[in-house]
Amino acid sequence: MQSKFACLLLAAGLIASGAPALANTVAPATPTHLIPGVYDPKTNTFKPYVNPGTASVNPNVATVTRTGTFVVDFTITIASRNISTSTPIYVQVEGFTNETNSTTFVSNLYDEFGTVEADRTSATAAHCSVTIPYSWPGLATPTKDLVNLIYTITAGTSTISTLYGTRQSSQSIVTLPAVPLNGVTTTERVSATI
Fold it and tell me: Which CATH number fits the domain that encloses residue 122?
């Protein structure tokens, strides 16, 4: 019985003496910024992942500013029966590109919007032109940056309290293979049906 008591006493002493050491143990730091990639244990190397949808920007490369204008002309056919002749039709165009630094993985998004009310040319047709001037400073790889143009047509009111109108349609217009050179006006024509 005494040996059992001695063992319990010894165990309690070990736990008690180890408690301060355990209490002062600091958990390893959790990384606040993880870099996506692949580690190869055979070669002990890490290769960071670069999103193929964006250009890889070297931080040591000089940057440029590109300025220009996007112009998109719309011919709209109104086929939805719930759109009256008094219902306004709004057209929004968005032009954007994205660059990602291959060292820091910081992305630079360049995003432009333009919205106009289309002119109703008849009960079943409307027309408008959306013009968006842009200036994108700090581009490192403008010849490799894809530029996307997309549109949204909304039939209905344009109040903040109305999220969607009577009818809405969104589609891609074009993907340009590079940011246009300075001073270039990029013109696109769209025939849409709502």
Answer: 2.60.40
Task: Give the pair of three-digit tokens for residue 31.
Answer: 């990384």
User: From residue 18, how far is each of 6, 7, 12, 21 by CA, in Å?
Assistant: 18, 16, 10, 5
The 10s digit of each residue's pLDDT in 29-84 is 444 455 556 666 767 766 655 544 455 566 666 789 999 999 999 999 999 988 88
Q: Total domain count for the chain?
A: 1
CA geometry: angle 94, 145, 58, nearest 5 deg: 130
Residue 13 is given by DSSP the state: H
Question: Is residue 119 situated within a structural domain?
Answer: yes
CA dist., res. 4 & res. 45, Å (int): 54
Distances from the Cα of 4 to the Cαs of 1, 10, 188, in angstroms? 5, 10, 90
The closest alpha carbon to 187, from 129, 105, 127, 109, belongs to 129
**Parent domain of 147:** 55-193
